[in-house]
Write a structure and sequence with these properties.
homodimer; seven-stranded parallel beta sheet; Aldehyde Dehydrogenase, Chain A, domain 1; four-stranded parallel beta sheet; alpha/beta
Chain lengths: 425, 425
């Protein structure tokens, strides 16, 4: 049944909120049962999902959608199996709910503790990838949260078919199907209404491009995860191992250029630029990376070096390329590098390559970002890599959670105080 | 020099942000030196502060300010000594900055850890108490944050004199005086501008009445602490020790009726109401508490019982009285009590009085509030009481921090990753 009005949408929010109270008290076993059911259904009941996706795909293609977007939209049997694997992995993660964060007995005998509890209802607004529907649901369910989902308008059929599987997985485990709510109406006015539903939604997770994230951050009346945008620097210090630098920089840029932890700007200390820059540039341009160099870098690499024909423009600094492009700048000191990062960084992931411990320490101490690295690729900034198991997103804000947000970051806590009649003097 | 324009205010924000980078790296000793300097100055250099406060007081009195507000505005030598004591206690608290929250070595040899760091710049908008100027500064400084303060318009002279002491305390320890910025212009347009300064202010702490807190929460573009408002219930279960109940309820209401953790509504199980309610009511009315009873409570207490002449109105439920008034309701079950609290509570502090462990467990599990109690007075919800040492406020939101916010809650963390050349496969 299609959600037609803001009242309908509020009804979804109310149902999610009601379900969230049941979810908050669900046992770990029950939650895992839902996830394992879902994992099975994603493998065995693919026909309807794939048929729905085929329709979405055909329509989007007929509407002239770009190839890269079409690829994000596409579901295949293999992709559904991959999603099933991920859901199974979430089932295997420890349950964060109920964890006692700290406990103490006060001098008056009161026992205080902080206990981890779910946030309540997590809203998510996302774009074309239909697998996000399953991802967000899995993480929310495991952390005891209900969810209210609004996917891309081009994937409503795929998402509707996936939500049907989510509900079957819930029902088969005896858990309320209201744990997932899906807004199946593409009307933008309903998105606007959703952003103001702070009486029902405790956290909003935007998943998509920078435009969507900014729109949500600026318009949501409830807390929202600000992130997903990374302008990432790697600074090659004068005491760097230059071969290591070339390998790390190559990995940070080329492994997957389209993700937020990919390198955008390379900073090289002037004392090692003459030797190091050609080494690093060779690796990068060999993989098809276009280098936007400042004048000093350009004069070292030579104006005719392949891929370096473009002098950097002012707006190359602070740009998230999401492509095989890197800005390159020669700096005269660690201080200059720190200042550049402070001016142009987005507080996501920043790295120094150095063998000098004091330079490394200053970099780690002074760079204000979600993740700061010594001698490693910034592409490691990821919930799975950091041992969180999975992530709903990467936060570049300072409040609540910074960096990859996993199951714990979808929870809050309550103070629990047990007394024997104590009154406060 | 008075802040005249939005540009001037931005200059204060920029100066605070610059100072925050210095503060983030300050040693614990340096921070404590500032605090101890300040504690001394507050004892020995009272003349100018008291003279300024005298002017503020006289002017506010001439303007017809109510007695209770005048009292909040008033500084005395004794009050300044009390504030000095508090600053000294903050110096004695452990420094949260630099704490390693967790660390692990990944299979690839990367060492990851999360390190506690300051938020950056904390803004505070508060009302008539000038001691808030010192309190907020002390907590911010100890947690490595710069602060931008906007106090009540009636206390600009007092605050200006206090800020002069803060700056002397900083300077005498060799720390930048820009660590504290004070907006000394009462123009409301500048408050509006401050609420939109998310490029400079990382967290906004409103301190004052419900109106101020709501205004800040609705209008601030940066995260703000939502709290300070508490509609608190105490539920006397059918298995309660009724004498204990009478004592706890009396304390929760009467000890300090004007604070947010004070009892507002008393819920009593119908099976013990006939015996318990008169016992509890006697304690309360004996201390001058006016009881707004529902019909069943009224019929038990009798229409002529002193202080109970008022039948409860619908808007008595969910009201924060901040006075010697309590709403009283008889309920038929724990479920009814839970439902009432869910409907009317504000998520602050809620208590059950019971000897029945399973009822206690259900209450603790199912009530969604910052602090949930068994057999104790809700007036314990306080940073000092909970062992945090001090608090900037009590959060009733779920994000970042819930309940009393102390030094740790004024920090965030960064991921620190140390490698030896690792790249991501």
């Amino acid at each position: 049944m299609t959600t037609k009005t803001v009242q309908d949408l509020h009804a979804l929010g109310m149902a999610a909120q009601k379900a969230s109270r049941e979810l908050a008290r669900l046992s770990t076993d029950d939650k895992n049962r839902v996830l394992l059911n879902l994992s099975n259904l994603l493998r065995t009941e693919q026909a309807e999902v794939l048929a729905a996706n085929e329709q979405d795909y055909a329509e989007a293609k007929a509407d002239g959608m770009e190839e890269s977007y079409l690829d994000r939209l596409l579901l295949t049997s293999e992709r559904l199996n991959g999603t099933a694997d991920e859901v199974q992995r979430v089932a295997e993660l420890p349950d964060p709910v109920g964890e006692v964060i700290e406990t103490s007995t006060l001098p008056n005998g009161l026992i205080t503790s902080r206990r981890r509890v779910p946030l309540g209802v997590v809203g998510s607004i996302y774009e074309s990838r239909p697998n996000v529907t399953v991802d967000i649901f899995g993480l929310c369910l495991k952390s005891g949260n209900a969810c209210l989902l609004r996917g891309g308008k081009e994937t409503i059929r795929s998402n509707t078919a996936l939500v049907a599987l989510l509900r079957r997985a819930l029902a088969a485990a005896g858990v309320t199907e209201d744990a997932v709510q899906y807004l199946d109406n593409p009307d933008r006015a309903l998105v606007d209404a959703m952003l103001r539903m702070d009486q029902f939604i405790d956290l909003l997770v935007p998943r998509g491009g920078a435009g969507l994230v900014r729109f949500v951050a600026e318009n949501a009346t409830m807390p929202a995860v600000t992130g997903g945008v990374g302008v990432c620097h790697t600074y090659v210090d004068r005491n760097a191992n230059l071969e290591m630098a070339a390998e790390i920089v190559h990995n940070a840029k080329v492994r997957r250029p389209s993700i937020c932890n990919a390198l955008d700007t390379l900073l090289v200390h002037s004392e090692v630029a003459a030797e190091g820059l050609p080494l690093i540039a060779k690796e990068l341009t060999g993989s098809g990376v276009e280098l936007h160099c400042d004048n000093r870098a350009l004069s070292i690499l030579g104006p005719d070096a392949p891929g370096t024909s473009l002098p950097a423009q002012e707006d190359d600094w602070g740009k998230e390329f999401l492509a095989l492009i890197a800005a390159v700048k020669v700096v005269d000191s660690l201080d200059d590098a720190l200042e550049h990062i402070e001016t142009y960084g987005s507080g996501h992931s920043e790295a120094i390559i150095t063998e000098d411990e004091s330079a490394a320490t200053r970099f780690l101490d002074e760079v204000d970002a979600a993740a700061v690295y010594v001698n490693a690729s910034t592409q490691f900034t990821d919930g799975g890599q950091f041992g969180l198991g999975a992530e709903v997103g990467i936060s570049t804000q300072k409040f609540h959670a910074r960096g990859p947000m996993g199951l714990k970051e979808l929870t809050t806590y309550k103070w629990v105080i047990v007394g024997k009649g104590q009154t406060r003097p």
